[in-house]
Amino acid sequence: MQLSDLKQQGHIWCLNDAPPAQQALAPTGFAELDLLLGGGWPTQQVIELRTAFGIGEFRLLLPYLQQQARLGKLQAYINTPAQLHAPFLSSQGLPLWQLLDVRAQDRDALWAAEQCLKSGCCSTVLLWQHALDIARLKRLQLAAAEGQAELFLLRPAGQAQLSLPVGLSLALSPADQGIEVRVLKRRGGWPGARQLVNFSARWPRLIKQHVQRPAQYGPAPVHDTAAVAI
């Protein structure tokens, strides 16, 4: 009997043939990232981003945050690694009255994230957190579902950390034209896929410029400002 016959009779199946889980997705604002993620950011979920600070991780989220700002709800920023820059946020279409800047110790930060998520007042919560156990993660997932909000959990890259049971986990790394995104875990999809998210259309001045110069003038200087995060 041929392999195709066995598949046709339902005796064997392939993972790619499995029907995708029903999950609401929201556009990221980048077509190439939507393609990588199968449609966009999963809503009412905890989304893990493994990233170094200042490589463009905030700009990756910015189009989505701009969309969410139109809902009129609050956005909570908990333990940002640098002070929020109000003029920049305002210039990017994020009303300052909608933004909460929270500073707290680790345990209190997790409590604050949970309260913001389940309150129903916040559309999005961004939490910079090094350590997180599975029990606390489950509480945050339940809170996100209850309050119909998303939690972006930003954790340091390159460290041995507990793999969390999240629906989406991404590793971010800097690139000349923007930021490279690698899938660590995605519900209904394979890990390991990579995609360059190009920032040149939105922020052309932040992209590395490789200028050709006559040899007598020496190598061209490199202007690397593509990594401003907040």
Automatic annotation (TrEMBL):
SUPFAM superfamilies recorded: P-loop containing nucleoside triphosphate hydrolases (SSF52540)
Protein name (record): Translesion DNA synthesis-associated protein ImuA
Originating organism: Rheinheimera tilapiae
Annotated gene: imuA
